[in-house]
């Protein structure tokens, strides 16, 4: 192991260079193309990453552009999987201090969309595997790094990949927090097809259910009584209002400022008889679900969270709201639907979009204890496994947990403007992944 650690340390600059190349691919989901189900940029990024892995002498496989893997064969029949993704959530360049796809380094930080979620840790794992191979290590389990391409938009990538490939025996996903996440809340993303808005009113906000929208615009034929962070462009027949907020991951809505909330409140005040505005303002703008009467909570994973992520007005005036709910691990998707249906006006449709049952891997399992020992021994800590509201690839396959990349106390920039990774933390996580891969595969 000492030889592998030395190799990884010596190749750190090469790792950073490769990561910068990967960051420069704008891998937001786009229109499908031949051999590119999630867009040509994602295909190009996957091709580059697999070619890089092949240059290390690793075996590679491209699964129809949905996902791919790089692996080092083991002496036995079991497989250690490392599952992460190359796609990213959208980035608005106007909100960034540095361009989101330029991969610039400032003050010992690498800036760019995907640096933490999830390109940075995946390239760190790839170079950890390279170092192990070059050190002469022969694993018992085959080590397989799987690069998904649709984690942020429904995970169709892994569904297709695992229809062609068997599940690994044991896995981790470098797409969460350190030390180890062994409990992930259930995910319920859905549309509420509401009633019609008042004549002349339209509302638009957000792009993804799992992102707190930082911008919301509305058109109203009458003047609204607005507060802070809302501007008005007055017209002769209609007024356009723009509300600004702060983006954050939809699983942690209180870390952002949802631009829809104040504007919906102003509209509901101006049109008190409109059932759609009243329901959204009274119930859906509460991030705890308390006003919606859906505030579930348990000891294992904490309370439910609710994010109003997207608002769209149809040509006939019907408003559709897209909501992301993360519910505690002791409940099910069926229970969540029944609770929503009971507490939502019967005339409004609830249309599930992306739902996922909770994940719970026992803390005393061999997988969790091994990874916890790696982290605590390397970092000289005595921490315990975590529960989160975020949904990682871990729930897509059996016997898998999330392991990094976010360190305890580190500022959260995932899904936010100016997403960045500290070069010091990148070096540290690379060594953690090296040790974890070594211990789990020998």
What descriptive keywords fit this protein?
442 residues, 4-stranded antiparallel sheet, 2 domains, globular, alpha+beta, Aminopeptidase, 6-stranded mixed sheet
Task: Describe this structure as you would to a colleague.
This protein is of the alpha+beta class and 442 residues long. It folds into 2 domains: 2-185 and 359-441, Aminopeptidase; 186-356, 2-Layer Sandwich (Alpha-Beta Plaits), CATH 3.30.70. Helix content is 29%, strand content 26%. The chain is built from 10 helices and 24 strands. A 6-stranded mixed sheet has the order 1-2-6-3-7-22, with helices on both faces. The protein has a 4-stranded antiparallel sheet with strand order 17-18-10-19. A 4-stranded antiparallel sheet has the order 11-12-14-13, with helices on one face. A hairpin with a 2-residue loop joins β4 and β5 (109-111). α1 packs across α4, α2 (12-23) packs antiparallel against α4 (119-134) and α9 packs across α10. The chain is globular. It starts with a helix and ends with a helix. The model has no long low-confidence stretch (mean pLDDT 96).
């Amino acid at each position: 192991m000492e030889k592998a650690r030395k190799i990884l340390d010596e190749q750190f600059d090469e790792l950073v260079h490769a990561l910068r190349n990967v960051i420069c691919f704008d891998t937001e989901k786009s229109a499908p193309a031949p051999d590119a189900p999630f867009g040509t940029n994602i295909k190009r990024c996957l091709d580059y990453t697999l070619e890089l892995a092949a240059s290390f002498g690793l075996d590679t496989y491209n699964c129809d552009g949905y996902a791919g893997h790089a692996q080092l064969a083991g002496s036995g029949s079991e497989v250690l999987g490392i599952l992460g993704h190359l796609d990213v959530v959208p980035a608005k360049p106007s909100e960034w201090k540095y361009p989101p796809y330029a991969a610039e380094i400032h003050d010992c930080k690498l800036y760019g969309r995907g640096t933490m979620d999830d390109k940075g840790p995946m390239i760190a794992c790839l170079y950890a595997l390279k170092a192990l191979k070059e050190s002469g290590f022969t694993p018992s389990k085959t080590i397989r790094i799987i690069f998904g391409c649709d984690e942020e938009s429904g995970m169709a990538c892994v569904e297709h990949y695992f229809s062609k490939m068997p599940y690994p025996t044991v896995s981790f996903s470098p797409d969460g927090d350190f030390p180890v996440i062994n409990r992930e809340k259930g995910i319920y993303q859905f549309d509420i097809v509401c009633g019609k808005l008042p004549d002349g009113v339209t509302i638009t906000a957000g792009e993804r259910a799992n992102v707190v929208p930082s911008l919301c615009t509305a058109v109203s034929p009458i003047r609204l009584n607005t507060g802070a962070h809302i501007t008005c462009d007055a017209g002769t027949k209609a007024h356009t209002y723009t509300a600004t907020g702060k983006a954050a991951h939809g699983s942690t809505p209180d870390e952002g400022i949802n631009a829809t909330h104040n504007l919906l409140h102003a509209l509901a005040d101006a049109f008190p008889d409109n059932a759609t505005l009243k329901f959204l303002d009274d119930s859906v703008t509460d991030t705890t679900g308390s006003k919606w009467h859906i505030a579930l909570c348990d000891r294992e994973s904490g309370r439910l969270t609710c994010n109003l992520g997207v608002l769209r007005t149809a040509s006939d005036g019907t408003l559709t709201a897209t909501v992301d709910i993360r519910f505690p691990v002791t409940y099910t998707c069926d229970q969540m639907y029944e609770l929503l249906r009971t507490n939502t006006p019967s005339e409004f449709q609830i249309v599930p979009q992306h739902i996922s049952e909770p994940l719970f891997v026992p803390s005393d399992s061999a997988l969790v204890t091994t990874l916890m020992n790696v982290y605590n021994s390397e970092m000289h800590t005595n921490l315990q496994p975590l529960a989160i509201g975020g949904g990682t690839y871990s729930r897509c396959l059996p016997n898998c947990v999330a392991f990094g990349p976010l360190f305890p106390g580190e500022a959260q920039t995932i899904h936010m403007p100016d997403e960045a990774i500290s070069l010091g933390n990148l070096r540290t996580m690379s060594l953690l992944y090296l040790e974890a891969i070594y211990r789990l595969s020998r």
